[in-house]
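Q: Second attempt. The first request was missing the SMILES, so the protein and zinc ion are both included now.
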Amino acid sequence: MNNDFTDSQLQQLIKKLSVEKNIILELEKEINSYRSGRLHHEYESTSDTYEDEDIDIKREGYYLDKITEINNVLEKISKKTYGICIDCGKNIGFARLNAYPVAQRCIDCKSVFEKINQSHI
Ligand SMILES: [Zn+2]
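A: Got both inputs this time. The predicted holo structure:
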């Protein structure tokens, strides 16, 4: 079963995902070069850079999550299961995916999912 996108709609979504992926890869590269630059620096001063390090790790985790998310979606596209709600199996709809290409749930299931999650907090 596949979502009933037209080819041009699907191409549009793939393009969005690729652009987003490239941006994240660039940001990741920046962090890596910043970090390797600092490694040499640390021989000279063992100052208080721990806070920066924490932020870097959090940010890197966020990028990794995003990349994984996008890769999962690209895999779904190649398996032709993209745009199907993981909870109810209905089509998510192009308008929603166009606004949020990595959406995994339709709007109905998303609001249910968020309510359940909130009630646990
Ligand atoms: Zn659903």
